[in-house]
Amino acid sequence: MQQRTKNIRLLSLLAITLVTIGLLLRFDRNSDTLGVDKKLFQLNDQQEITDVYLLGPDEQNHFHFEKGQWHLNDTLLLDQSMATVFFSVLSRLEIRRPVARQEADSLAALLRSQGVRTIITYGADTIKDYFVGGNPDLEITWMLNHREATPWQVHIPGYQSYVAGIFSVPASDWRSRFVFTTNFALLSRLRLIYPDDSLVIRQKNNFFEIPGITADSTAIANYLEEVAYLQADRYLTPQDTAGTYHLYLQQPHWAGLQLQTATGRTKEVVFLQRPAGKPYLVGILSDGTPALFKYQRIKGIFKTKQEFTDE
Q1: Model confidence pLDDT, tens digit, residues 2-16
Q2: Considering the entire predicted model, what is its pTM?
């Protein structure tokens, strides 16, 4: 009987010990990995926002939503595909684990000095404000709430991608690839200028014509649509023009494409001659930005007026 009582006491003590250990483990696990909402940095995909500021030590960009479109740095359109990827990342990232305590202070200081401060707002209201950065091997992403001292490792569940990378993308990669943002309903004149020839398409009495010839109106409409959707393959950075694409910038002018609206606003691309044997040519945009175009993709815009005749 005494032995039975002793066994019961031992079992009771064991049960209490196991429960205590379980609670301690649960508390420790919550405090270390789930002590904060894992969606702390996540942007609710139903959340309305008007502005995103990406403020890095070397690159600073501002996205602003107005009149149904995202704009980049006040004067450009944001590339729609890039915007889709970026906002998908914001709506899916989660905290994975806390940073080791012995590394927290130094990593927090690094994120504040070298990371990208990301501020997301709706009008005057701040929705999110945090720092983003990663390790030198571009494998791990950390985030730090700007009002807190504890960094967190974040990820997109199910993916191995380097989340921090998209926050450091240069403006040239955020910019819309569409060269012209002109409303073609307001177009008054298009000029394609070659060294020894030119093509002029102008609007007269709500119709487009080519002075000097009887032009096929369908051919003109198709051509204007092709110009309207002209896209660059990429915008060249100063590093590009000083390195790999230096040869392209040394070529002579080949053709100039000018668009003028009824208000007198003019947009232009000056195309440089394609280097021998190369698939690309460079176009210099109105703001001076050099852009790369694959010739086979855009060669249809380089026409002469004789190609529009309906005779």
Answers
A1: 433 433 343 344 334
A2: 0.80
